[in-house]
Sequence to fold (489 residues):
Amino acid sequence: MRSKNLLLSLSFLIFLLPRTFAQLTTIVLQPGSVIGEDAIVSDNSPDLNFGTIEDIRSMAWTLGGVPFVDRNFLRFDLSSIPSNAIVQQATLTLYNNPTSLASSGHSSLSGSDESVLVRVLGPWSENTITWNNQPPTDNINEVILPQDTNPNQDYILNVSSLVQDMIGIPSSNYGFMLRLVTESYWRCMIFASSDYSNAALHPKLEITYRLDSCIVLQPDSSKGEDAIVSDNSPDLNYGTIEDIRPMAWTLGGVPFVDRSFLRFDLNAIPSNAIIQEATLTLYNNPTSSASSGHSSLTGSDESALLRVLGPWAENTITWNNQPATDNVNQIILPQDTNPNQNYILNVATLVQDMVSNPSSNYGFMLRLVTENYYRCLIFASSDHPNSSLHPKLEICYTVPTSLNEIQKTDKMAIYPNPSSGMFSIVWNHRQNNFNHLQVVNYFGQSVFEKSISPGENRVDMDFVNRAKGIYFVTLTGSNTCIVKKLAIQ
Fold:
């Protein structure tokens, strides 16, 4: 049995990553002519600057019978967003210019006016840019504006990936360029620029981002909790073995099965935290006495990481007293590709369960999917002399806004929003008798409906396997209807 005294506990590795803790933050940028940066460039006048035009336009037309092409550059000041921010959602809204002198609206007279928004790769200035000095662009994470459905259509574009690039490397925020996909006359899209007289129609960039709290847990023998159980010796405890192993083998010609249990202390994470990322790294044990490496002599050594449903102790667990497990959100470790392979596993959903219900954090169990000898995966446990090979759990999380204020209003709240798929819808049932909840996708198709019971004020949702994009949540009652936008990414 291991001694776990105070001095040894100093070697327990918990790293707080250098990120600032914060909630989800949303900013809306819709600058006017003084701060706004947008300009047209035209091959009709390749050395002229058009930095004060009231249009943003992707256009191919003719002037006096001579074809020309217009493109547009625009940029937003993102300096208020920390460079380590993780963009949850970024939408760019371009509003049709109803009084444009260039065209009475979008046009596809000669073919599709489909346009593309791309990243700009070099510096430019609103009052000096021209067709001849326009900077280069690339199509990485480009955003397509499909052909208009009416000549006065506004466009709401998901530019999350483009904005993430601009925030991650602030010095390379050169903004966007808008152009037709096919620059053949007569076709165009016409939007209002930041110089337009109606400020409500200026280009609008709405960004929601988070700054995660992250921890890395890689305990050693003083704090690590892992043990093997074996049906070869079903009443013996193996809490100090240097292996973590799912194994089926023989001993003296007699078949046996080994399984492994491991658990991490998650008490440092608030129980209402939303897990954004969680990865478990298991390192091959190159000095194992049980096997020289992973093995699939008689078939696949594919294994499963399962949630444990009952308590256990590292120094008392045996095959005969091992707790139950279930396969909800189980993680499959595919057959190894080499006998010394390390595995990095996405355990976000399993960890979310453990964090949300701290009293039932019984950790993980690792076993072969098919427990037929001779097959095994061999990893280092927290008792291995090389601390860099100990099991490592990396977690990044955010904490949602307190619900106290929500209970004082008749409004509905969705958190986290944007979401990676797991989210909650909360409302005040005391002031309104809501009776129906519906979620529709961007095309107006219902994807979820639920009747609300009296007194009910919360629904927890799982959209992990649904399409990413914008959804609309509607909560209705006898005299009330509330609609909120939800972003899944």
Remarks:
- Residues 6-21+215-398 form one domain.
